[in-house]
């Protein structure tokens, strides 16, 4: 088996990997992008039919490729995102090997890294001076082990496999998790006329618009997406926070689970256990709703203070008041009695870096890094939530993160060349 050499190997052909490739191309650094499937496939494969972005379209800006469509303050649908992304690679011609999986990454005997790769032409080994792992941090959907004991007549699927209400058997649906995916899937099913039961997590929520402007546009102007994680309240612990739920559907609006409850959706606290058709919940639904609303109003107050401090003319705002409340938190559900025929798990993902066989991970299996740079010279990670700022896990911050990593790579090559010349 022959070994090919490249200065930089990028693992992952999504927006993070392609952004890195764009910067390396501009810098004249030879590199290769390994993509296990096809470029940007995640957007087409793991989003439901009615998916929309929750960030305004103007946030969509990759290096050399900003959104230039007719609706910068709107929210692209899944298919529009796929179409927009499909034009990125042709705009600069990255060196990509699709359908090529990196099975293992190890340190090289004489420096650099060895990548064991399987592609259309079989297995091969590549040696790279630098490696950028751009596979994101959402690899393995979380499903509790006890879910295997739920009655087999109940269909179970992870949120990434949900496409539309019609794919599910007739009957009510239990959605587990109220983060961005869970809340929006519950909304999708609710709008489709399905009876929905929703088990709440601890996700906060945010207004879609406030005082005449999209809230995320206000937050961008306030510098929230540019604040390094170390300076954010709570510091690096922010990396474990769940994103606020809101929707871009139908031009964008709030997701108010209390309003959905008024319209017939059943709300529960954390799902704790289950077997057969019986499920047990913690009595945390009221606390979860109150906490989400408190964050919603807190963000509105931050915007109020910013408007006042900067002397900005803006229409008056009104904070949220609950439209519904539980009499008592439910703690159990019989799926058969409630007519529930399917469960959608939307409680998050775990990272899976078992193929990265280097000592750069913390006790939780997460890459230990400083703005994407690990302690192992030449090994970097990109596309992670809160890698550097709140914007790092989305289009808004990927261009900057990729540019920083490439600066480090180019700088290390210049430094190595200077040392070589000195010798």
UniProtKB/TrEMBL annotation:
GO terms for molecular function: flavin adenine dinucleotide binding; monooxygenase activity. Keywords: Oxidoreductase. InterPro entries: Auxin_biosynth/cation_transpt (IPR050982), CHP04046_FMN-dependent (IPR024000), FAD/NAD-bd_sf (IPR036188). It comes from the Bacteria. The keyword Oxidoreductase applies. The keyword Ion transport does not apply. This is MSMEG_0569 family flavin-dependent oxidoreductase. It comes from Nocardioides cavernaquae.
